[in-house]
Amino acid sequence: KRYYFYLIICLKSAKLRQSICQNLEWVGIKISNKLNLENKSKISKKSSNIEVFNILAEPETFMLKQLSERL
User: Fold this and answer.
1) Which residues have CB under 8 Å from 5's CB, separation 6+?
2) Residue 50 to residue 63: CA distance in whole angstroms
3) Considering the entire predicted model, what is its pTM?
């Protein structure tokens, strides 16, 4: 049985996203270097246990939107 979790990263730097995800490989995160460099919204590989998304927005704006939806 396979479980999926979602990791959303609000970072503009592909290098920083790659560095963070490499440090999380032990939990099953695998990202595509090509998709990451192209700033695609989904950057995880098909073989990744955790789907990784790159949200192209300001982190503060994204967090405020999420908070307002929960209120």
Assistant:
1) 49, 50, 51
2) 21
3) 0.67
